[in-house]
């Protein structure tokens, strides 16, 4: 009887979908839920475009010696900020709220592998980030004469900056979700550091106008390098004169973003919790 039961259990386990299949299903569910919240959809996609329009309208003059305008710099900067917003900020807030509402505890009690939950979040982040980036590029090329890469090398550079930046920021978002003590404090805990990083990383204020100590602090985090790398993709080489090093530093960008991917994974493994601190 015991042997029969064990064999039946083995057959049942064999019929259970794997983490990858469950992750795809979870991702589809996350995307459906996202688009059902119309206010969230409008805010997610309109926010960077509105800020791009405002800053480009105020500081859109031509930049001497670079062959570019400030508006074109802001397009690249807002794409980088959009990547971090849809990954770091969105995951940090949503996971913390789900933990506070005991959604994570209930999921942990089901047979679903933990990896499937995170895969679902990754699919949501990837989907929204691709759409937002496409919208910003359309806006930038239409209104501000931003030129898309003319060769495969440029698109490959864009691809690895996008993937490494999205991965590192997503892992940091998962890690910071464990910091808030409750869902009520989540927005303040996550949004404040992201807002500060945008100012000291050259998103809202161009790097040539930032003091050295701000640039030094910003260089510790991935957003500054994403901004710099995307400027290198969408702006002419002459514009690199405004960078602190006088070049795009693609090699250093790759190393820093890869290091944040590894460091973010370590932080997630060390800090992630399925329950609130008060739940024991």
Automatic annotation (TrEMBL):
<dbReference type="InterPro" id="IPR013525">
    <property type="entry name" value="ABC2_TM"/>
</dbReference>
<feature type="transmembrane region" description="Helical">
    <location>
        <begin position="118"/>
        <end position="140"/>
    </location>
</feature>
<keyword id="KW-1003">Cell membrane</keyword>
<protein>
    <recommendedName>
        <fullName>Transport permease protein</fullName>
    </recommendedName>
</protein>
<keyword id="KW-0046">Antibiotic resistance</keyword>
<dbReference type="Pfam" id="PF01061">
    <property type="entry name" value="ABC2_membrane"/>
</dbReference>
<feature type="transmembrane region" description="Helical">
    <location>
        <begin position="74"/>
        <end position="97"/>
    </location>
</feature>
<dbReference type="InterPro" id="IPR051784">
    <property type="entry name" value="Nod_factor_ABC_transporter"/>
</dbReference>
<feature type="transmembrane region" description="Helical">
    <location>
        <begin position="188"/>
        <end position="207"/>
    </location>
</feature>
<feature type="transmembrane region" description="Helical">
    <location>
        <begin position="152"/>
        <end position="176"/>
    </location>
</feature>
<feature type="transmembrane region" description="Helical">
    <location>
        <begin position="41"/>
        <end position="62"/>
    </location>
</feature>
<dbReference type="InterPro" id="IPR047817">
    <property type="entry name" value="ABC2_TM_bact-type"/>
</dbReference>
<keyword id="KW-0813">Transport</keyword>
<feature type="transmembrane region" description="Helical">
    <location>
        <begin position="253"/>
        <end position="272"/>
    </location>
</feature>
<feature type="domain" description="ABC transmembrane type-2">
    <location>
        <begin position="39"/>
        <end position="275"/>
    </location>
</feature>
<dbReference type="InterPro" id="IPR000412">
    <property type="entry name" value="ABC_2_transport"/>
</dbReference>
<keyword id="KW-0472">Membrane</keyword>
<comment type="similarity">
    <text>Belongs to the ABC-2 integral membrane protein family.</text>
</comment>
<keyword id="KW-1133">Transmembrane helix</keyword>
<keyword id="KW-0812">Transmembrane</keyword>
